[in-house]
Amino acid sequence: MMARYNRWMNEKLYAIAAGLDEQALRCDRGAYFGSILGTLNHVMTGDVLWLKRFAGHEALAQPLALLQEVRAPSRLNDELFDDLPSLWQYRRRLDAALIEMAEIVGGLPPDTVLSYCSMKGMPVRRSLQALAIHLFNHQTHHRGQATTLLKQAGIDPGETDLLMLIPEL
C-alpha cells in the first residue's frame, strides 16, 4: 500500500510541478532543501541511497536493477537530475520498481536482515522490513514539505492523505 501511495503522490506532485516555470521550480523558499525541485531531488536521492542498499539483498537485486543506471549519492543534498523532466522520467521507473520490491519484502520473513554500509562506511545490520518502512516514511515526510512549497507558490495540491487509497469496507 505504501508503494502505491508513493506512486500516486509522486504522479500528483510531479504533474503540478511540471506546470511551473523554471524560476518557480528553483526558487529558494527557505525549506531544508531550498526549492520544490531541490526537495523532489532529495526524495529521489534518499530513495536511490536506500534502494542501492536494498539491491544488495539477493531477493531484491533483479527488481532494483535499474539503480545501476544512476550514481550513488555521496551527500543527502546531491542532485541526481538537474531538470524536472529527467527527474520525473526516472521517478516513474523507480516507483514501478518500488511496487515490485515492496511485494517481495512483504513476503520475506519478518526477521530478514539487510547488511549494508552507512554513508560513513560503517557496517550496519538492520531489519529489512523496518528499513522499508523508514524509506516510505522518509518519502512521505519530504513530500509533505513539497506540498507546503507548492502552497507557498499559490498552488493547492489537493488531497494528499494515504486514506484516499484505503478502500472503504
TrEMBL record:
The keyword Nucleotide-binding does not apply. This is DUF664 domain-containing protein. Belongs to the DinB family. It holds the Pfam family DinB. Signal peptide: none annotated. InterPro entries: DinB (IPR007837), DinB/YfiT-like (IPR034660). PANTHER family: PROTEIN DINB, SLR1116 PROTEIN. The keyword Metal-binding applies. Keywords: Metal-binding.
